[in-house]
Amino acid sequence: MRVLLAEDHRVLARTIATGLRRQAMAVDLAVSGDEAERMCLLTDYDVLILDRDLPVMTGDEVCRRLRELTDPPRILMLTAAGEITDKVYGLTALGADDYLTKPFDFAELVARIRTLSRRPSKTPRVVLRHEGITLDRARHEVSVDGRPLELTPKEFAVLHLLMEARGAVVPHGELVRTVWDENLDPRTNAVRVVISRLRRKLGDPGLITADKGQGYRLCD
Known about the structure:
The chain is of the alpha/beta class. The chain is built from eight helices and twelve strands.
């Protein structure tokens, strides 16, 4: 297993690295955020242990940048910020895979690293783009030509499915199952209403088209 430890506290970093190497892991060290990003671009790491309070570039910014890669390393945030709000922010807004607060038990760190390494290597893209539309899954943000849009959770989910399909038809039934649930009345016009609102907010009525009554897709 190839691990990158980004930690600017050199004594702590050496201690953690020594312990992980004894667990048969190959460990590289980075002492700043820009160094961690550069090393991840050059080497395919299985797991990145990322301190949030790094010099030059914060761990938060490193996490955001790496999440735009096609196949980023699994990221374990390691930080003294242990409030629930900090954890939620790290896991959702930043897109980290796991979050461990200092001080921590070394055995728990090892267990979390091994769990992360077993996850599939290919991860869904966090930032999707289509015809000037940018959708950031981690931050839950959408913009058109740089202009931020305010979308409801249903509108965001529908647009996300359409952008993931990359122009292919997303069946009506898949939209209902994924965005709503099986209890939705099949006779309702809920999907059509959300599609109509999306077209209006995106500023292009022809961008989302109905495909012969089978479903919807994004057009170029």
